[in-house]
Amino acid sequence: MDNWTFGLTMLVVGMGGTLAALGALALMMGLLKKIFPVKEE
Amino acid sequence: MFDAILNGLSGLGAGVVSLHWSNPIMIAVGCLLLYLGIKKDVEPLLLVPIGFGAILVNIPLADLMGEEGFLRVIYNMGVANELFPLLIFIGIGAMTDFGPLLENPKIFLLGAAGQFGIFLTIGLALLFGFDKLDAVAIGVIGACDGPTAIYVSSRYAPHLLAAVSVAAYSYMSLVPIIQPPIMRFLTTDKERKINMSELSSTTPASKATKIVFPIVVTIFGGLIAPNGLPLLATIMLGNLMKECGVVSRLTKATENEIANVVTLFLGISIGATMDGRAFLTSQTIMILVFGFVAICLDTVCGVLFGKLMCVMTGGRVNPLIGAAGISAYPMAARVVQKEGLKYNKFNFLLMHAVGANTGGQVGSVMAAAIMLSVMKGMGIIP
């Protein structure tokens, strides 16, 4: 594989993958907060 | 008799005679690192052992990095097999409070944007003729996360380990100098004054959420990026131990004894890779330059993403917190708070910035994990 293809793939899949993964985690955390809400004293 | 005395004296001078021109320079570099650590308080826990290791390895004939040398033994024990950075990650996880991030999970996205510099720098390094694995090791300086940089470079470009580690830790400590001009350049006065404490609608996370968080991140991250699971799993194990509260002895050990011993061994081993003959090359200078560029690009991408979030939320996000999306914890969050206060003395961005900063910690590990898995998918690594 040439450097150009490798670099471009890293940019697209790496940056996109990181953003998508953390976006999915953010959604999961929002969901977790609904499943386990803070209990009132 | 006279010959014996002469031979004895020549034995005493053998070290001096064997000095390569690069050795005194590197001994001076080691002294400089010691000075920065001791006198200027720049990452002393790392720079002191690194500086001393650099001095030791540049004293000829002692052969401390030879097959039987004690520095080689330590290096093989935990750097060559990537164990030390992982052990440090358990301690980092145990010391990190993800509460501010869980209060406002949307700012997780800033932790992703703060890693874009890694991938942009990989592209730049490739353009400048570095091969693929070297470019990846250089780009990972942009993770702004010492253990991640050491893990990746020791595994895939061990010949660059010293330069990458020194760059990663040096630039982390320079975050308060590097970031503010970029933050000011990319934001307007009005944006910098946005008061998030007035607009915030965050809700606190329960103890159960904090306990489940590291388990979910480990399983999810492991499934999409199995090659980086050691990085994710160790930081999350440390955090799980902290949050569950039932293994406080282990948590304290990972925060203190284990982290301290490993930091010493890791530092001296990295210093031991700074042999002048291998370190003083134009490649090292290029790596230092690329490392700087990587951290600048992280900040640029983080702040620009903050601006995007500001627009999308109708002005409820202060773009400055985007700069905290890098992993340098807690320096980046402090820089954001300080900058925010300069423009609005009633603006307390700290908790939001800490949230973005811890998001950056997960983001840097996730970015490295994804990078390794993408490389495996492309057949670049086994």
- Beta fraction of the residues of chain A? under 5%
**What summary fits the major beta sheet of chain B?**
none
Order of helices and strands of chain B: HHHHHHHHHHHHHHHHHHHHH
CA gyration radius of chain B, whole angstroms: 22 Å
Structural class of chain B: mainly alpha
Helix share of residues of chain A? over 70%
Given as residue ranges, the uncertain stretches of chain A (5+ residues, pLDDT < 50) are none
Number of strands of chain B: 0
**Largest sheet data of chain A:** none
Helix percentage of chain B: over 70%
β-strand amount of chain B: under 5%
In short:
The complex is a heterodimer of chains A (41) and B (382). The longest helix of chain A is centred in the middle third of the chain and has 33 residues, at 3-35. Helices cover 80% and strands 0% of the residues of chain A.
Structure report:
The complex is a heterodimer of chains A (41) and B (382). The longest helix of chain A is centred in the middle third of the chain and has 33 residues, at 3-35. Chain A has 1 helix and no strands. By secondary structure, chain A is mostly helical. Chain B has a domain at 86-196 and 218-263 and 273-377. Chain A binds chain B through residues 1, 3-4, 6-11, 13-15, 17-19, 21-30, 32-33, 36-39, and chain B through 101-102, 105-106, 108-109, 111-113, 115-116, 118-120, 122-123, 126-127, 131-132, 135-136, 203-206, 208-209, 212-213, 216-217, 220-221, 224-225, 359, 362-363, 366-367, 370-371, 374, 378-380.
